[in-house]
Amino acid sequence: MPDNGFLRGMVLVRLISAAIELTGALLMWRGGRLDLAVRINGLLGIVGPLVLTTTMALGLAGLAASRMPWPKLVWIGAGVLLILWGTGR
After folding, report:
1. Are 59 and 4 in contact (CB under 8 A)?
2. Burial class (CB in 10 A: 0-12, 13-18, 19+), 5
3. Does 35 score more than 90 pLDDT?
4. Which of 30, 37, 72, 77 is a good FRET partner for 43, with 20 to 30 A between their CA atoms?
5. Rounded distance between C-alpha atoms, residue 3 and residue 19, angstroms
6. pLDDT digits (tens, 9 = 90+) for 3-23
7. How many angstroms separate the Cα of 19 from the Cα of each of 47, 60, 70?
8. Taking the model in full, what pTM does it have?
9. How far lies 66's CA from each of 1, 2, 16, 32, 50, in Å?
10. For residues 51 and 13, is the Cβ–Cβ distance under 8 A?
Protein backbone atom coordinates (compact mmCIF):
# COMPACT_ATOMS: atom_id res chain seq x y z
CA MET A 1 0.00 0.00 0.00
CA PRO A 2 1.46 3.39 -0.95
CA ASP A 3 2.21 5.94 1.74
CA ASN A 4 -0.89 8.12 1.95
CA GLY A 5 -0.90 11.00 4.42
CA PHE A 6 -4.64 11.54 4.03
CA LEU A 7 -5.39 7.96 5.00
CA ARG A 8 -3.04 8.16 7.97
CA GLY A 9 -4.75 11.38 9.05
CA MET A 10 -8.19 9.75 8.88
CA VAL A 11 -7.00 6.78 10.90
CA LEU A 12 -5.37 9.04 13.49
CA VAL A 13 -8.55 11.12 13.92
CA ARG A 14 -10.59 7.93 14.40
CA LEU A 15 -8.12 6.56 16.95
CA ILE A 16 -8.21 9.83 18.89
CA SER A 17 -12.01 9.73 18.77
CA ALA A 18 -12.02 6.18 20.13
CA ALA A 19 -9.71 7.22 22.97
CA ILE A 20 -11.98 10.16 23.82
CA GLU A 21 -15.07 7.92 23.82
CA LEU A 22 -13.37 5.30 26.01
CA THR A 23 -12.17 7.98 28.42
CA GLY A 24 -15.69 9.38 28.61
CA ALA A 25 -17.13 5.95 29.40
CA LEU A 26 -14.55 5.39 32.13
CA LEU A 27 -15.27 8.82 33.61
CA MET A 28 -18.99 8.00 33.66
CA TRP A 29 -18.27 4.71 35.39
CA ARG A 30 -15.90 6.26 37.89
CA GLY A 31 -18.16 9.24 38.60
CA GLY A 32 -21.04 6.95 39.49
CA ARG A 33 -23.64 9.73 39.20
CA LEU A 34 -26.33 9.99 36.56
CA ASP A 35 -26.11 13.78 36.27
CA LEU A 36 -22.37 13.60 35.65
CA ALA A 37 -22.83 10.81 33.11
CA VAL A 38 -25.41 12.89 31.21
CA ARG A 39 -23.04 15.87 31.07
CA ILE A 40 -20.16 13.72 29.85
CA ASN A 41 -22.45 12.13 27.27
CA GLY A 42 -23.45 15.58 26.06
CA LEU A 43 -19.83 16.50 25.51
CA LEU A 44 -19.23 13.24 23.68
CA GLY A 45 -22.19 14.05 21.45
CA ILE A 46 -20.20 16.98 20.08
CA VAL A 47 -17.24 14.77 19.20
CA GLY A 48 -19.12 12.52 16.75
CA PRO A 49 -20.06 15.13 14.13
CA LEU A 50 -16.65 16.78 14.42
CA VAL A 51 -14.90 13.48 13.78
CA LEU A 52 -17.21 12.68 10.84
CA THR A 53 -16.61 16.10 9.29
CA THR A 54 -12.85 15.99 9.84
CA THR A 55 -12.37 12.48 8.47
CA MET A 56 -14.57 13.18 5.45
CA ALA A 57 -12.71 16.43 4.74
CA LEU A 58 -9.42 14.54 4.82
CA GLY A 59 -10.86 11.81 2.60
CA LEU A 60 -12.25 14.29 0.09
CA ALA A 61 -8.96 16.17 0.02
CA GLY A 62 -7.18 12.89 -0.64
CA LEU A 63 -9.60 11.98 -3.42
CA ALA A 64 -9.23 15.44 -4.97
CA ALA A 65 -5.46 15.03 -4.88
CA SER A 66 -5.79 11.70 -6.68
CA ARG A 67 -7.60 13.40 -9.56
CA MET A 68 -11.09 12.07 -8.89
CA PRO A 69 -13.62 13.89 -11.11
CA TRP A 70 -15.19 16.95 -9.45
CA PRO A 71 -18.81 15.83 -9.97
CA LYS A 72 -18.15 12.71 -7.90
CA LEU A 73 -16.53 14.80 -5.15
CA VAL A 74 -19.56 17.09 -5.11
CA TRP A 75 -21.91 14.10 -4.73
CA ILE A 76 -19.84 12.70 -1.87
CA GLY A 77 -19.73 16.10 -0.15
CA ALA A 78 -23.49 16.49 -0.60
CA GLY A 79 -23.99 13.08 0.98
CA VAL A 80 -21.97 14.10 4.03
CA LEU A 81 -23.95 17.32 4.36
CA LEU A 82 -27.21 15.38 4.13
CA ILE A 83 -26.04 13.03 6.89
CA LEU A 84 -25.21 15.98 9.13
CA TRP A 85 -28.47 17.75 8.29
CA GLY A 86 -30.55 14.59 8.78
CA THR A 87 -29.07 13.85 12.18
CA GLY A 88 -29.29 17.43 13.42
CA ARG A 89 -31.93 18.74 15.76
Report:
1. no
2. exposed
3. yes
4. 77
5. 24
6. 688 999 999 999 999 999 999
7. 11, 24, 34
8. 0.76
9. 15, 12, 26, 49, 24
10. yes
